[in-house]
Amino acid sequence: MEAADEWLLQSLRLYRDLHTFELQAPTRLIEWARGDRVCVAGYGQSDGNEILQLIPPPTLLTKETQGLCPERDFKVECGGFSERPVYSLKYVPDTSLLVTSGPPDSSLQVWQVSAEDSDVIKSVSTIATEHGTGQSWAKIATISARAPWVLHGSRLDRIQITEVESRKNVYTAGIQASRSSEELSSLAFLDCSTLLLCCATGRLCLADTRQPQGVTEAVPVPSAPCAERWCMASRHGAQGPEPSSQPVARLSSGGLLTLTDLRKTSEVLASAKARVPSPGSGAEFLCVSWAPALEGYLAISGFDGTVHVYDTQSWDSSGREAEPIFVHKGHTFGGAGGSRDPPLVTVHTWHLQKPRTLLSAASDGSLHVWDWVQPCGKCG
Fold it and tell me: Disulfide: which of 29, 183, 216, 306 matches 41 by Cβ 3.0-4.6 Å?
């Protein structure tokens, strides 16, 4: 308890806001939905996995600073149950729909967040995929283009875009590369025509929906041990006249971070080594994300019970160790579930408008939302 008490005292100085909520099961996903709501989902439960839509604490909905608040500042607005583990969840913009994926195959489940007179999130359809049997769970991204679309796939040769409401296939990538069966770790819409794909090996690829004949390799694999796994993040809301001008961040399970300008794919824009332990379970929860309202800032998690925030604006191509400007350690001091194992942060995400506000969830069921006061130098 002494360490927890010390951290709480530090919180009074380092955090502008800190809220916690204890969920009933380990949580893998956090997704912002319409009306500034938060959607979360569980994984791995044998008797059903919860999907919840939460109303955030009042301080996230106002400009006032109210300091530390007690537990259960989040309120459950509606919820449902999935019979399969939920490994990926995305809100479909401009709708009341959610799309999820998870084992044992690469199919997608579509959910309806009910109207105000109901507290149920109900399953409305399943998007089956060709050759989906035997494939790992699908990574997904959503966008509202001509209609609400979902980009999904588990391997580089299984990429497609489906219209969510009609379940009509609108794009399938014709892969011609020799390594086309590589496992995917992340994918994203750069705009309604351009897709960014990241393989678990770290290889970045681009696809254009107007040219369905193939996918082109955008960036070579960074110099890192072959056994390491990678994930990537493009900056949220970067869609515009030239989305490729936004740096793409890649994170390896060994803690290597690289930044790439897709307009100059032959060189690495910057690289650094994160001050984190190597994960011991295959980098299952590796996560990197750009701050949408804070230029050059990114956060990483999935190595232990912490979330590290970095300012990348001073990075060069040397790959030397980077000093985090802030480390959130709250999950390391326990939460729900009573597990003796140290909790592992399973996911984090940034608030879309508040520059220094993040949400993070951990394997013990703890959900935190936090806002640090200012860059604190050496706080790792």
Answer: 29
- The pTM for the full model equals 0.88
Task: At 134, list the tokens.
Answer: 């035997």
pLDDT tens digits along 272-323: 999 888 765 557 899 999 999 999 999 999 999 999 999 999 999 888 999 9
User: The sheet that has 184-189: what strands, in order across it?
Assistant: 184-189, 194-199, 204-208, 215-219
Distance separating alpha carbons of residues 290 and 288, to the nearest angstrom: 7
For 327, list phi and psi in degrees, rounded to 5.
-130, 120
- pLDDT tens figures, 353-366: 889 999 999 998 89
Listed residue (142, 213, 141) closest to 180, CA to CA:
213
pLDDT at 14 over 90: no
Asked if pLDDT for residue 98 goes beyond 90, the answer is: yes
Backbone angles phi, psi at 357, to 5 degrees: -105, 125
Q: How many CB atoms lie within 10 A of CB 288?
A: 22
How far the first Cα of the chain sits from its last, in Å, is 20
What DSSP line would sit under 248-283, residue for residue? EEEEETTSEEEEE-TTSTTS-SEEEE-S-PPPSSTT
pLDDT tens per residue across span 126-158: 998 866 555 689 999 999 877 899 999 998 888
HEC readout, 64-129: CCCCCCCCCCCEEEEEEEECCCCCEEEECCCCCEEEEECCCCCCEEEEEECCCCCCEEEEEEEECC
Beta-carbon contacts of 107 under 8 Å, excluding residues fewer than 6 positions away, are: 101, 126, 127, 128, 129, 132, 138
* Type of residue found at 8: L
> What is the percent of the chain where pLDDT is above 70?
80
CA distances from 63 to 59, 67, 75 (A): 7, 12, 19
Determine how many CB atoms are found less than 10 A away from the CB of residue 13.
Answer: 8
What is the per-residue DSSP string for 193-252?
SEEEEEETTS-EEEEETT-TT-EEEEEPPPSS-TT--EEEEEPTT--SS-GGGS-EEEEE
Q: What mean pLDDT value characterizes the chain?
A: 82
Please state the φ and ψ torsions of residue 57, each to the nearest 5 degrees. -60, 150
Query: What pLDDT shows up at residue 174?
Result: 62
